[in-house]
Amino acid sequence: MRVLGYAVLLVLAIAGMARAEDDKTLLESFLEDTLSGDNRTITVRGLSGALSARATIEELTISDDAGVWLTMRGAVLDWNRLALLRGRFSVNTLGAKEIIIARPPGKTTQPTELPTPEAQPFRLPELPVSIELGEISVDHLVLAEPVLGVAADLNVGGALRLEAGVLDATLAMTRLDRAGDGARLVAQFSNETRIINLDLAVREDAGGLISAALRMPDRPSLSLTAKGQGPIEDFTADIALASAGVDRVTGRVRLRGIAPTEGGGAAGRGIGFDARLEGDVTPFLQADYRPFFGDDARFVLSGWQAGDGRLEISALSVDSDALRLDGALAMAAGGRLERADLRGRIVPPGGEAVVLPMPGPRTELRRATVELRFDRAAGADWMATAEALGLARPGVRIDRAVLAAYGPIDADPGEVLRGKLRGALEGIALDDPALAGAVGDGLRLTGGFALKDAQGLRFERLELTGVDYRATVDGAVQGLETGFAVEGTAAVAAADLSRFSALAGRDLGGAMEARLTGRGAPLSGRFDLVLEGAAQDLRAGVDRLNPLTAGATTLRLDAKRDETGLTIRDFRINGTQISASGQGRLRSGDSALRLEARLADLALLDPRLEGPLTLQGDLARGTRGWTGQVSLRGPHGSRADLDLDAQDESRAELRFDAELRRLERLVPELTGALTASGRAQRGAKGLWTIVGQAQGPSGIAARVSGTWSEPTGEADLTINGKLRLDIANLFIAPNFVKGDATFDLTLKGAPALDNVTGTIATSGTTLAIPAAAQTVRHIDARIAVARSQAELALSGDLGAGGSFRVSGPVALTPPFDSRIAVDLLALGLTDNLSVTTSATGQVVYAGPLGGDGSLSGRIDFGDTDINLNAIGGSVGAAPIPPIVHVGEPAAVRATRARAGLIETEKAGKGPVIALDVTLAALNRVYVHGFGLQAEMGGLIRVTGSTKKVEPVGQIELIRGTLSLLSRRMRLTKGVISLQGGLNPYVEFASSTSTDEGTATIEISGPMNAPEVKVFAEPERPAEEALAMLLFGNRFSQMSPLVIAQMAASLARLGSGDAATQGVKKATGVDTISVGEDETGAPSVTVGGYLSENIYTDVTVNTQGETELNLNLDLNENLRARGTVDNAGDTALGLFFQRDY
Fold it and tell me: Where does the UniProt annotation place the signal sequence (predicted)?
């Protein structure tokens, strides 16, 4: 019926238009503008006879942001226009051939328009005193499946008469696409005959509209009847609701006349009433709701109403398995409450909690009680209480919720009811940590209220209190006839705003309080208010702005809006660093505004800028249009001026002129001033001509010119010029860029990226990246923009050698889809500590720039050098350890920040990118350090995603040795692999087999912290394993003390010759070396001085051979040497030597 009502409104909206009937386009546009609202856009086509007795519309559509959701075709309104003058709406026929509802209505975005300064008076609509609809008909009412869950085609017909104490309504609805489903209603009553005739019948088979709309389990067949006929003093109606052919709920409603002595007294006869409904409603409910009702629910109501208006409900009872509610009520003539008694409780029939039958998420309750007591005759105070325990919904749990109200029964003159309120929420637990931190674990409510005859409802210091915040209301709310006028005071205060940080998504802090005093009417927009606020050390989550609100800050706004317009009597902000003031008026034909603001020192925002910043603005509107000036003044004579001159609708001009002096304060490479100026002129038909230019040091220049059409919103603009990229250093520190960029862009059409074309280019640019210890030189880049897409072409050289190219398209609209290829050409890579290599290959990123794309390709590495000594902690090569700065000056910290030396917390969650990158280093990977000399090669394929990296493959040993205590051993194992976080992991080992078993020395662990281990099979102490490794089968001939000292020396691997020094100290010899003889057998040599010029040494190998050497220094240049071994062989020699 609401849809058909639009046809009625169409005619009512134009009934007073003095226009020719044949001006259809104008009428249709008028109706569309008049009937469209915040949640609908109406389109009318084929309107005819709008000012005649029979109006028709070919088609009417209602749409939202998603499109048309309702279509009405063939609408007819045959009506009596003159009857409206007598307050009677009389229609012969109201109908439509077809109404199609495709889906429920959604959101409609209306054009953003500023409201008028003047408030609009609120008035209640005036309705006709009587309505007569002779025929209501809709041939086809089509409901698409999204509306109720089942598609349907209905025929609707009926009539309605409501006038002079007569109600006569008939309605019939038949489903055309399924036989047997339908509804019929007859409702009749006349004050003259006092006879009621009610006949309601609804029937549908299984899977019908009603069961689908109410989401009944199994979608059963339904039948609902309510039928009765008779005089109002003796009327009975029987009600029955059935499903699947079984009566579920039955009952009866009775009306009866009562004698004057029973309740009417001298006022005449009254009407008694009673109703009783009972049955099993569980077949209609979801399984979770059934325990609340059980299989036998009851509703009982009985009472009477006297002829003078007195009302008494002697019994009210609602009973189910979980709910019990009993009550009674008595009201005097005129509606004054005399007595009320209500008691109820909710108790789970089984278990600890019961699910409440309410829409939305599942809601559970352990127990609840409600009680109301009011008896004017008894003269005691009235009271009402409600308590709920164990209330739980998804994400919310409340241990106890309680609300109590009480007060005197005999209120003050003019008051209907007065009382006090006390309430609390205790044990609040919220799953959302941000919301939990803001709310806390409890809330309390206190205050009073008074319900007044003429002044509506008044709240007396109604206060809601949290952990360290509160909100207070003290005022009155009047009724609808005043537009819900309000008057009073509202206040909020928070001692610690940081508790709201997570909820706001930013770092808040400080304390604040605010108070709003005055009056207003929301429906008309009228108000007369004063807002006062104060804050201490306010933080808004922007580190740069926090110094501006340090200390005490106050706010005051005194404003009024009525039918004459908006007046700002006073506006002030005062703080330790910022201040602002303003006043003015806004009226449709006469406006004037003035604003002044001042920042004490710009250095609070940037240490490179010192001095005050002031703003002053004036804006005025007269009968011919707007004029205004805004000026900004900064340190060292920097300025900006904006002038507006819009004297009439056909002409307007906007001019700006700005100068930023001493640009070197921000960009040291640019000395001088940056200036900009321009104008925008409005000509005939709303066409704006725009010209602007900017100049700066080192050839900085830019120019914009073209037009913009106000009626169409389309532009024809070009912007071109040259910029110094050094300006970007303000935002990319500690990185540093140097070079020029040129741009030449065009906008043709509506301001949108689709209509922007042009190029941005740079050449010979240099970029320094301290974090990567790299400098990128000779950067040449070209970005071509067209159709919301940028085509990249970029190349450059790396300071460590080699070059790279970047190319591919990037969409300029979310989600910024791209396909970017990066080519590496012998690109030198180093961490300036332990790893040096070169890379050649290509990787391609495809997908949104924000993540959820893929990275694939292959990179081949050239000669690679890995120095484990530098990684493992060599004093000369290791990085500087972390330094804690105590009492650090601000300037020093700023310098470290620009250098990237201050670590900040990384975000816990980043984009997920699929990986398929092959890292190939087939040979020439050289590893040294810890005595290692190894060449390696292999291939690693990085798969998975950035969330879970899955490396496949490894770099393996080709050849290599391990030198230990002057002995060189062949490596038996060498592997470099990548673990989950792409962390390199190394494993090197060398083993020796003897009669006693196998000994192994192993260097393994993360590349940045490898460990050295020595072990044997079968298991032996580490010192014995070391001796086996060095001496083979002869290790058993060494004393335990020597072996222990060798183990201690092993622990000092990587510290020069400390290992051999430990062994020499343990044995008392002057020299010791471990190696191999000419046959390759392991050997050890120890030696010492017998006197100042006699030196001897002994060599023993693992084959049991022994050799003794004796050296005699005859003088500085002549030496005699003799040798004897265990086989009896001897040798004697004389040697001459001289040092040069």
Answer: 1-20
> Could you tell me which residues come within 8 angstroms of residue 1139 by beta carbon, excluding any fewer than 6 positions away?
none
Torsion of the alpha carbons at 886, 890, 894 and 897, rounded to the nearest 10: 30
Q: Specify whether the CB–CB gap between 1122 and 1109 falls below 8 A.
A: yes
Residue 1064 backbone dihedrals phi, psi, to 5 degrees: -60, -40
42 vs 264, more confident: 42
Rounded CA separation 388/386 (Å):
7
Share the mean pLDDT of the chain: 84
Rounded Cα–Cα distance for residues 752 and 750 (Å):
6
DSSP class per residue in 700-712:
-EEEEEEEEETTT
Confidence at residue 4, expressed as pLDDT on a 0 to 100 scale: 44
Confidence of residue 632 (pLDDT cuts 50, 70, 90): very high
pLDDT digit string, tens, across residues 777-786: 999 999 999 9
Helices (H), 631-738: 729-732
Among 838, 795, 842, residue whose Cα is nearest residue 821: 842
* Model confidence at 19: pLDDT above 50: no
> Can the peptide bond before residue 734 be classed as cis, meaning omega within 30 degrees of 0?
yes
Antiparallel, parallel or unpaired: β 88-101 and 715-724: unpaired
Tell me, what amino acid is at 47?
Answer: L
Residue 584 carries which side chain, given as an amino acid letter? G
Torsion on CA atoms 173, 176, 177, 180, rounded to nearest 10: 70
Cα distances (angstroms) measured from residue 537 to each of 468, 548, 554: 16, 9, 11
Q: Where are the domains of the chain?
A: 1-105+128-155, 178-258, 920-1055, 1069-1140
Per residue in 440-473, pLDDT tens?
A: 999 999 999 998 876 689 999 999 999 999 999 9
The DSSP letter of residue 1116 is S
Neighbours of 673 (CB within 10 A): 17
Orientation of helix 1022-1031 relative to helix 1040-1050, angle to 10°? 90
Q: How far apart are CA 442 and CA 426, in angstroms?
A: 5
Give residue 123's pLDDT: 58
The secondary structure of 130-178, three-state, reads EEEEEEEEEEEEEECHHHHCCCEEEEEEEEEEEECCEEEEEEEEEECCC
pTM over 0.70: no
State which H helix or E strand residue 778 sits in.
Answer: strand 774-786
